Amino acid sequence: MSTRFKPKALVVSLALLVGLLGNCGPTPEPPRVSGIDVKPSTTIMVGETASLTTKASGTDLQFKWTVARGNLSGSTTPSVIYTAPDSPGPDTVTVEVTGKGGTTVQSITFEVIPPPTEPSTPIPTLTPTETPTPTPTPTPTITPTPVPPLVEIFPQAEGGEAFVFKNEGGELNTRYVESTECRHSGMFGLRLIYAMSGEGNGGWGIHWVNTSTGYFDASGFSEFVLWVKGTSGGETFQIGLKDTSGREAKVESESLVIVSSSDWRQVRALLSKFTGVNTASIENVNIGFNPDHGSGTICIDDIAFE
Hints:
Layout: H1 7-22, E1 32-39, E2 43-45, E3 49-57, E4 62-67, E5 71-72, E6 79-83, E7 89-99, E8 102-113, H2 149-153, E9 161-166, E10 170-177, E11 189-196, E12 202-207, E13 223-230, E14 238-243, E15 248-252, E16 265-270, E17 282-289, E18 295-305
Parallel strand pairs: 2-8
Antiparallel strand pairs: 1-3, 3-6, 4-7, 5-6, 7-8, 8-9, 9-12, 10-11, 11-18, 12-17, 13-16, 13-18, 14-15, 14-17
């Protein structure tokens, strides 16, 4: 029996093959957020305003702005107007940028300061004699400008910006806190609450992309140091360094420290462990989590290159 050629079946098979090949494209990457542009400054007096514009790239981007204490003119556009609260102190603004590849979170901290006061000069008191005795002018009390929480926990981050990253399956909450349980020294510590499932990952870090040089030069240092404390003990994480050429290396915390819930432990990571990274041009340093780290809460403080 001879087999007859069936062109219709061949066309349907080719169409299915093309459809399957079309679904093998690369997975979209999360939006890239290089920073938040602030005008005029992140140091602002109570009640004053500043414009914020997120620098994001990607496709089908959606924006969600939130603020801890002040007010925003909107919440779903790339640019918003921030109005400082009526009381001085730090205030954090956060934007979540969502695209086809996931969500990227970026935060910036304002230092809200009180308006300047003009000391009054008292009128000199005259004695009954013809020669008046002047009353000395009191020395005005100078109130120091509050130090931003990021700079307090990581002084070398001055000029840099904090950022948060996470993908689908990763949950991360970051907060500067004043409680004694979550600060090793000074006024603030950083609390990181994380939960990673499936292929989820995320973390917190500092980048120097928007500085005059675009990087931090750590070539004069030999270690990256921080203090850590957990809520349960035994928590794990990874420390990452990335240079301006895109080379990145990570070191697991369990090779450096056993996290305790009762006392603070110092982590000292040799920069030589970050193989391939040019320490003379660090773009960012980050504390990251993946499914191997599970979920938990840690506090970190007193970060430094030494």
